[in-house]
Amino acid sequence: MAQKQTAPAGAVPPRRTRNVQAGPRSQAVIEAVRTATLAELDRVGYAAMTMDGVARAAGINRTTLYRRWPSKAALLGNLLDSEIDRLEQPPLPPGLGPALDAVLAGLADNLSRREGVALARTFTAPEPELRDLARASRLRALARIRAPFEAAAASGEIAADSDIDMLAQLLFSTAVLWTLEQGLDRAAQQRLLVLVLRAAGASPVSG
């Protein structure tokens, strides 16, 4: 009997829109569904949101919706993938401090958007069906945050045996929770950056 294959620990899961067809019509449907999902989340919240309500708000039939997104969690995943894509795209400057500063600024920008608020709430949501979704999105975000630490450890900027997992979690979890409580403005970003750099044993950035 063939054994079930599992992804290695820490592996970044594939994007949930990987098999969605491309093209102007498909992109129009994706954008309509994203807009409708956000509107329904704002109107009734995740628990009360329905697939029928999203289909009506998007102006598409239920068959089209279910073919691409078979559940409410998949609809939310459509939002989260786009937000993580935005976080992953900009090239990072050299040096641990400048790179983390850029990552933190991008994360704060994402979390200030409606989609970003949905992302942050997903990480702390009680619904069981959102656990895998939250984990997949969190792993992608953490991979982006880990990269500067890994480069710094390889170059000797920080110790080779630095606890990169814990450092990345410190930055990410603090940023998400701070955003949910009071918003992560530039002053708060700098405070968090200094804290993380000190924890890593690196020199703080100037400015």
UniProtKB/TrEMBL annotation:
SUPFAM superfamilies: Homeodomain-like, Tetracyclin repressor-like, C-terminal domain. GO terms for molecular function: DNA-binding transcription factor activity; transcription cis-regulatory region binding. Residues 27-87 form the HTH tetR-type domain. Residues 50-69 bind DNA. Keywords: DNA-binding. Residues 1-24 are annotated as: Disordered. PROSITE patterns: HTH_TETR_1, HTH_TETR_2. InterPro entries: DNA-bd_HTH_TetR-type_CS (IPR023772), Homeodomain-like_sf (IPR009057), HTH-type_TetR-like_transc_reg (IPR050109), HTH_TetR (IPR001647), Tet_transcr_reg_TetR-rel_C_sf (IPR036271). The keyword DNA-binding applies. This is TetR/AcrR family transcriptional regulator.
